[in-house]
Amino acid sequence: MKIKVAHPLLFSWVFPNTQKSRFSQTTTMLLAEGNQSSGAMFTLLGFSEYADLQVPLFLVFLTIYTITALGNLGMIMIIRINPKLHTPMYFFLSHLSFVDFCYSTTVTPKLLENLVVEDRTISFTGCIMQFFLACICAVAETFMLAVMAYDRYVAVCNPLLYTAVMSQKLCASLVAGPYTWAIISSLTLTYFLLSLSFCGPNIINNFVCEHSVIVSVSCSDPYISQVLCFVTAIFNEVSSLGVILTTYVFIFIAVIKMPSAVGRQKAFSTCASHLTAITIFHGTVLFLYCVPNSRNSWLTVKVGSVFYTVIIPMLNPLIYSFRNKDVKESVQKLMNHSIQLC
């Protein structure tokens, strides 16, 4: 709340000397109340209610994060060093791996810290920054999957024109789009979060600073921020799924018309990994939107949040590596080369 203070000479005339000190104290208190949000502290409860599981959960999440980091960074490295993988499909896949690595790195270290320390607080700045970065990664991944769907559409429906259509300029533009919109969306939502006041106690019943849990502890009216978040989320989900469903309808029609069974199998194999990643990511998001309002909702939300912030970034490189012949061959060659060096 902003407080406009009139000119000091006006106060000297209006208030007697006996009231100057009292008024000064009151003004100072009100100004401190208006500015206290910047110094607010939040407490991330995480999984603190399961005291006996803190160490096992720490080991599980540490293992998952290690696999996530090695898998996504390894995928990026393999794509860069293998000329055979310098194609639009792997170009988009490398950016998906980059987003997954950043997403996991934004969330998991704080989750691991809160599992081994008693002080589970996070500063207002730290909480807002975590939301800002996580929001960028989530929105970027949403539209990166849509871009990859368009790439598969061109590859299956126009194979002879694939190289000409998916030029370097177009690929760069298709990648820049998700990042740009993700930053714009995140900046807008963060701006309205910064306009809220937090009076405490700011106890967040989650392990990550999500929009819904931040506004739930605000002591000011979060209506505009909530509506904006809802509209943005619906737009992102509907538009990205619209692109994905439309492209796969055309892909399915094109595959059905193929005269060769081998060609149909190859086309389905090309799209299988992407379809798996889409189903897991959007399935989890839609499930969270449909969580009923009950006493068990918070546990369900936390489990769902773990899935799409921690598990999915680990699964994507595994999905694409296990179901992709070129990636598996590249990994095998790299491992053989490493063994020979040792």
UniProtKB/TrEMBL annotation:
<keyword id="KW-0297">G-protein coupled receptor</keyword>
<keyword id="KW-0675">Receptor</keyword>
<dbReference type="GO" id="GO:0004930">
    <property type="term" value="F:G protein-coupled receptor activity"/>
</dbReference>
<feature type="transmembrane region" description="Helical">
    <location>
        <begin position="301"/>
        <end position="320"/>
    </location>
</feature>
<dbReference type="GO" id="GO:0004984">
    <property type="term" value="F:olfactory receptor activity"/>
</dbReference>
<dbReference type="InterPro" id="IPR000276">
    <property type="entry name" value="GPCR_Rhodpsn"/>
</dbReference>
<keyword id="KW-0812">Transmembrane</keyword>
<keyword id="KW-1003">Cell membrane</keyword>
<keyword id="KW-0552">Olfaction</keyword>
<feature type="transmembrane region" description="Helical">
    <location>
        <begin position="57"/>
        <end position="78"/>
    </location>
</feature>
<dbReference type="InterPro" id="IPR017452">
    <property type="entry name" value="GPCR_Rhodpsn_7TM"/>
</dbReference>
<feature type="transmembrane region" description="Helical">
    <location>
        <begin position="268"/>
        <end position="289"/>
    </location>
</feature>
<keyword id="KW-0807">Transducer</keyword>
<feature type="transmembrane region" description="Helical">
    <location>
        <begin position="238"/>
        <end position="256"/>
    </location>
</feature>
<comment type="similarity">
    <text>Belongs to the G-protein coupled receptor 1 family.</text>
</comment>
<keyword id="KW-0472">Membrane</keyword>
<dbReference type="Pfam" id="PF13853">
    <property type="entry name" value="7tm_4"/>
</dbReference>
<protein>
    <recommendedName>
        <fullName>Olfactory receptor</fullName>
    </recommendedName>
</protein>
<dbReference type="InterPro" id="IPR000725">
    <property type="entry name" value="Olfact_rcpt"/>
</dbReference>
<dbReference type="GO" id="GO:0005886">
    <property type="term" value="C:plasma membrane"/>
</dbReference>
<feature type="transmembrane region" description="Helical">
    <location>
        <begin position="128"/>
        <end position="150"/>
    </location>
</feature>
<feature type="domain" description="G-protein coupled receptors family 1 profile">
    <location>
        <begin position="71"/>
        <end position="320"/>
    </location>
</feature>
<feature type="transmembrane region" description="Helical">
    <location>
        <begin position="170"/>
        <end position="194"/>
    </location>
</feature>
<keyword id="KW-1133">Transmembrane helix</keyword>
<keyword id="KW-0716">Sensory transduction</keyword>
